[in-house]
Request: fold
Amino acid sequence: MAVVLAVTTGCGASFLPGGGPCRSAGPVVALPPEVPESSGVAPGILKAGEHPGSGFFWTHNDSGWGPELFAVTPEGALVGQVRVQGAENVDWEDMAAAPCGDQRCLYIADTGDNLEGRDDPAIYRIVEPHPDDSVSAPARRFPLHLPHGPRDVEAMVILPGEELLLISKGRNHPVEVYRSPGSLPEALARSGEEPVVLQRVQRLTSSPPGLPRMVTGAASSPDGSRVAVRTYETLHFYRLEPDAQGGPLVPSPSGLVNLRSLREPQGEAVAFVSREPDGRSLLVLTSEAGPGGTRGQMTVLSCRVP
Reply:
């Protein structure tokens, strides 16, 4: 859903492209007009052994649009449009790519809840399609239950072993971290196919953060050791320490990046792409379209992840 964003000044975070842990790794690219409300992004792979994101990225629209994934090249060209079989786009807000057994799957978070009244949030999982496909393999749906009441959730992390983290937006409550009790398939099997009850394991803020700092996307590094959480105007890096006192996401030193200089119309998504030979990581960001016909955009960053 589009919003009018009044951006405030940053709070000591590093600006792009100079200084701090991140720098721009290429030009800002306009997304195709078919994706005016990009809310999630993940690097695509055409064949085993390929460099993730070397050929294209997957993205999707949020509420009000069909259950479709779009394959977009790093230059912004649309090279595929795939309908997700057996899925409904109530309010898709994030996505991730991760191994699922001996395959690679895409995970879609149907967890948006602007009015915070939904009783049916869910994660969809599909085997990654080819951009030439018109329809995906059948989706598996993992119904979820948030134990402290409905929350607007736009950020999802899939950890190794298909363990789920959801991070609430902070619309009317503090920003909260929820975790699945083990892998999603195992948790659903234990629940007898009833909604998987998530565990609230952490609060990242003590109160609702205000519009510019509401959480709009998240992603984990391929090894699960680092998590990136983005808001409309910032990018935060965390170390994942499951047994840490206070919660699994531990802020990394110098791990806050101010994204305001990118001038995103409405920053929504983030994904880790790859680790470079110099030890830096490539991440991709996407934004919804803006007013006056401004297209959504995609930006690649090179980050020294603390």
